[in-house]
Design brief:
CATH topology of the largest domain: TIM Barrel
Structural class: alpha/beta
CATH class of the largest domain: Alpha Beta
Strand content: 15-25%
Shape: globular
CATH architecture of the largest domain: Alpha-Beta Barrel
CATH superfamily of the largest domain: EAL domain
Largest sheet: 10 strands, mixed
């Protein structure tokens, strides 16, 4: 769903009906969007809500009678806040869309079509987040530019900025080099006027290159000319830059004190890794930036190969540290023999090499990577008196116009290399942005097979996290958490439940969990332990008409009392399936099982829900735990919810407690139970001392 979906979406609904507002919020929550909602009915309430706190999206109901779209847009505009206004609709017509856009809405969203509402809301939230981030970046950029100018003014290097061949900035060292007193004397002066006639033609060609939007050469040897006509040999270092928002070329003049040939040799040494003779990491990153910029401009026949010698530590044990440089030098020579004229090859880290493949199709780049891997496999390296065989893992990231920068290319190629090593090494893993959708589909099929096998062969694992009473309740309380046994450790539900839902495995998973929890409960009872388990159910559970009869039979067969089980469902799922949830909760009640509402307090009127579904426990939404010790608003909201729950005879549970300060506050406001990693992280065994 995108990164914006990981944040809390603050929604302000203009809606006369609480039930209709809850329906919209539930649609967003069921889509996995964390929502902090508010509701108003008229213009005064809207203005007060905007003044009182931060808002991301304002949604205007088609049934709102006390305020229209134009007035809503005007109030938002007067508030001076950047947020998104959406017109909700039951049906979309061309006239409605045009009128809504003219009156100030960013879009029209169908509240009768959950997927459409979710897509529009999430898209606008992402756009809003992007705008806000851009403003932060612009502010930081302006501050950086201000500081940069301050540093430039104090720099001893002669530095100038040139736009369209004319000086737009020069620091004090630059003015002194060319015998100018003040910048006014040089402002608007053509840079060509500071080049002697001897090199004027060469430099004129450089200016033509710049006018076409091409990158300047990094270095240029010229004879410079001062204001009094005297000349000196210099090296111009040029780079793309900007000044006050306008594109420019930064030029640093360095007076040449050595021969041009020697200067070039010294410059080459700055770019070179001394052990291998390849480019060093710093210079490679500069070249990678250029390659990525070219890809964003449409030149996508490029790829980044991240090459790492497998089991390098074992190799060092064979040849000793003294032989490492010889080995790496030989590897570099081998790679150079395989590289093309335009490939950019570097030693990136200790035993890692990177290369930008240039001018090869993506298929050819993958084939070339395979040639490199094979050459490692076939080659015998002689180091002193020893002969060494090497293997290499190669991560390949293919360039496309969708890449976001050099950091992303490096990350993906490095990640691909790590995956190759995890699979045993001596192989190639390729990341292709264009093929991501196909890869996702293939992963889904792999997940389906893995989940099916886990159900058949008991590859799921139960973890337990203590739920501790702050009010002296007797017994032990644990929440049961499901994990999947994976090749590299336990896999969290966030990874396997979405594909399980797509392939219809959730009912089977619910039954697997309940069956195994009942078995554990049997053992606890035999041991004389007074244990209550909180068990999460997946959303389809309340619509599964066969689950309650099956549960009743399991409890009967195991001779386990139902009151030792509390089943949990998110508030948003219950709201959208209220009729089925009421029936399901009544069935649990007959079996003496408890019922808990998770993410409680995330809706517009959560306590109204308790009039329909008689939950024994309410587990407060985790957003209230965010910086609880610092947020007076969250503290007051938790206190209010505890008082209301107490008045209705419900028990409150605060999850995700991560620090002692929060524990103290939760005790003071009257929370019944607390749960979180501060007390104990989920474990395979139940070892918490309830005292």
């Amino acid at each position: 769903m995108g990164k914006a979906a990981d944040k809390v979406l603050r929604v302000l609904l203009i809606e006369d009906s609480v039930e209709d507002a809850e329906q919209v919020i539930s649609i967003l929550r069921n889509a996995g969007i964390a929502v902090r909602p508010n509701r108003v009915e008229d213009g005064d309430q809207l203005k007060a809500a905007l003044d009182a706190g931060a808002t991301d999206l304002v949604m205007l109901s088609p049934k709102a009678k006390k305020i229209g779209l134009s007035e809503t847009a005007a109030i938002i505009s007067r508030s001076g806040k950047d947020l998104c206004l959406l017109q909700l609709a039951d049906a979309i017509t061309q006239d409605l869309v045009l009128r809504s856009l003219k009156e100030g809405a960013r879009d029209v969203a169908l509240r009768t079509v959950p997927e459409h509402l979710k897509t529009i809301a999430l898209r606008e939230f992402e756009n809003l987040t992007a705008r806000r981030n851009l403003r932060k970046i612009e502010a930081a950029w302006r501050e950086s530019e201000r500081r940069a100018h301050s540093l430039l003014d104090s720099s001893r290097d002669p530095i100038a900025y040139v736009h369209e061949g004319m000086h737009v900035y020069a620091n004090r060292a630059y003015l002194e080099m060319f015998n100018f007193e003040e910048f006014d004397e040089i402002e608007g002066l053509a840079i060509l006027d500071l080049i002697s006639p001897k090199d004027a033609a060469t430099f004129r060609n450089v200016l033509k290159t710049l006018s076409k939007g091409e990158k300047p050469p990094e270095r240029l040897n010229v004879q410079a000319q001062r204001a009094d006509g005297s000349t000196f040999d210099a090296v111009m270092e040029m780079a793309e830059a900007s000044i006050e928002g306008e594109p420019a070329t930064q030029i640093i003049f360095r007076q040449q004190t050595v021969s041009a040939e020697l200067a070039e040799q010294l410059d080459a040494l700055k770019r070179q890794d001394l052990v291998t003779g390849l480019y060093n990491r710093q210079h490679f990153l500069t070249e990678l930036d250029r390659a990525v910029a070219a890809a964003l401009g449409g030149k996508v026949d490029q790829a980044l190969l991240y090459i790492e010698i497998d089991n390098y530590r074992k190799v060092l044990d064979q040849i000793g540290v003294g032989g490492a440089d010889l080995l790496l030098g030989d590897v570099a020579t081998m790679l150079k023999s395989l590289a093309g004229e335009h490939d950019v090859l570097a030693r990136f880290a200790d035993h890692s090499f990177t290369v930008v493949s240039v001018g090869r199709t993506h298929e050819a780049a993958a084939q070339w990577a395979e040639q490199i891997r094979k050459r490692f496999e076939e080659r015998i390296f002689d180091v002193g008196q020893r002969s060494v065989s090497l293997n290499a893992s190669i991560g390949v990231c293919l360039f496309s116009e969708k890449i976001t920068g050099a950091a992303m290319v490096l990350e993906k190629s490095n990640e691909a290399c790590r995956n190759a090593q995890k699979d045993g090494g001596n192989r190639i893993v390729t990341f292709d942005p264009a093929a991501q959708d196909k890869a996702d589909a293939a992963k889904d099929r792999e997940w389906a097979e893995r989940i099916k096998t886990a159900l058949e062969k008991d590859k799921f694992i139960l973890f337990y996290q203590p739920i501790v009473s702050l009010q002296g309740a007797e017994g032990e309380f644990y929440e049961v958490l499901l994990r999947l046994d994976g090749p590299s450790g336990e896999i969290l539900p966030g990874q396997f439940l979405p594909p399980a839902e797509r392939f219809g495995f959730l009912p089977q998973i619910d039954r697997w969990v309940i069956d195994h929890v009942i078995r554990v409960l049997q053992e606890r009872i035999k041991q004389g332990r007074n244990t209550t388990f909180f068990v999460k159910l997946t959303p389809p559970a309340i619509e599964d008409g066969t689950l309650l009869p099956w549960l009743a039979q399991q409890l009967k067969n195991a001779r386990v009392p139902g009151d030792k089980l509390v089943f949990e469902m998110p508030e948003s799922k219950v709201v959208t399936h209220l009729k089925q949830a009421k029936f399901f909760q009544k069935g649990l009640e007959q079996l003496r099982c408890g019922f808990a509402l998770e993410q409680f307090g995330s809706g517009l009127n959560s306590f109204q829900l308790l009039k329909h579904v008689s939950a024994n426990y309410v587990k407060l939404d985790r957003t209230y735990m965010n910086e609880l010790a610092k947020s007076q608003e969250n503290q007051q909201r938790v206190r209010d919810m505890c008082e209301q729950a107490r008045g209705l005879g419900r028990m409150t549970v605060a999850e995700f407690v991560e620090d002692a300060a929060s524990m103290s506050i939760l005790f003071q406001v009257g929370v019944n139970f607390v749960q979180g990693n501060f007390l104990q992280e989920p474990q395979k065994t139940m070892s918490y001392d309830f005292g």
